[in-house]
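Human: Can I borrow your eye for a moment on a structure tokenisation matter? Separate attempts, laid side by side, tell us more than any discussion would. Could you pick a protein and write out its sequence and tokenised fold? No explanation is needed for now; the record alone will do.

Assistant:
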Amino acid sequence: MDFLPIFLNVRDQACLVVGGGTTASRKVELLLRANAKVTVVAPELNEKLSQWLDEKRIFHRADKFSPSDLQDCRLVIAATNDKAVNEQVSKLAQAQATPVNVVDQPQLCSFIMPSVIDRSPVQIAVSTGGASPVLARLLRARLETMVPASYGKFAEFIASFRDKVKQRFVFNERRRFWESVLQGPIAEKFLAGHTQAAKQDLEDFLEKSDQKLGEVYLVGGGPGDPDLLTFRALRLMQQADVVLHDRLVSPGVLDLVRREAEHIYVGKEPTNHPVPQEDINALLIRLAKQGKRVLRLKGGDPFLFGRGGEEIESLMEEGIPFQVVPGITAAIGTSAYAGIPLTHRDYAQSCIFVTGHLKDDSMDLNWEALAHPHQTVVIYMGLRGLPIISGELIKHGLSPDTPAALVQKATTSDQRVLVGTLESLPAIVDKADIKLSSIIIIGDVVKLHEKLAWFTP
């Protein structure tokens, strides 16, 4: 370890920045956010620094650096484009044991300015020891996606209960208590904006701390590409004790679930339901009552042909707390990655989602409504019924030449797009030996596929 990571209190302390350009203003901004008293030494100031000077937020000495500028300084930053000046500042500051940073010259620094994720009072600093500031910024950006903006207020909320918890528990018990709070429904309720409810739940949990808290996370896993998960989905996936997942959840998404979590497969296929929906509902309730954080992970969005509504009805009847996290539904992901916009001013002014699931080799759909021109029809679970779908739509008025496409395993490296017409697509699909995990799109927007397709598996 080349540098000792510390957090320095510079509130109301005199800090010096040498330089008046863009780089200097970035460093001044950080110091101001830390409530430092900042003096800038530079012959001229850029627009931002001049604005702060007019607002009396900084002091300015309009001249070149002088050794006397270091007097009584708590911290020094050199941000000039003059190598000799930067070396002089570094040498003099280190001689009097004043922490000094020279921008982009780590060999002249006694401390490094890290990339910062600021969720005050929570702060996360990332540094590469000056080896690669760009890499540090990229790592910070990745961490930004994992740390909600409300974590600062959450930390303050937790701090308001510290004394009560200290009085109630000894050290080891306190740790276990806070782990239950920070990784459970109370935290998620607060981060979702329900602050008063979270406060009441924490007070109740403090009084009844021997009772277990369980919760169900109903999460949409999206169409397949893990990059399409929401921030909240990823956070809850990392907290789960057990995950119930279906066959439409891609391996890449499943890999992001907390590694210690128990996996239970409850997937369904046409004509094959190894775990009936009623048993899934009962399992969610039983696991939650055991105090577990249960992740119900579904492909696409849980409320679009995902039976999520049925599951939360069962949870509500049993008083089980739950959260619902929407996902990018398969139709949206499929159309985007296949270059087929679901609506377009010149081709379609509306879009209809339907399920083409066969029951007793028949299909009960409103064919007249689906056969209207200037709209897009997206069909889930329509692979086995494609010949019936095509025939009925033609019978009810759509032209046999209406463009149609089937997309298999959309947004993944195995994506396939088969394009034809309402009349020809069934034969094309049959010849291609397409299996499950497919979406059918019917309408003139399919004409745009070759022009707008950007994703190449």
In short: The longest helix spans residues 83-95. The chain is about 35% helix and 20% strand. The chain has five domains: 14-113, 116-147, 149-209, 214-328, 338-452.
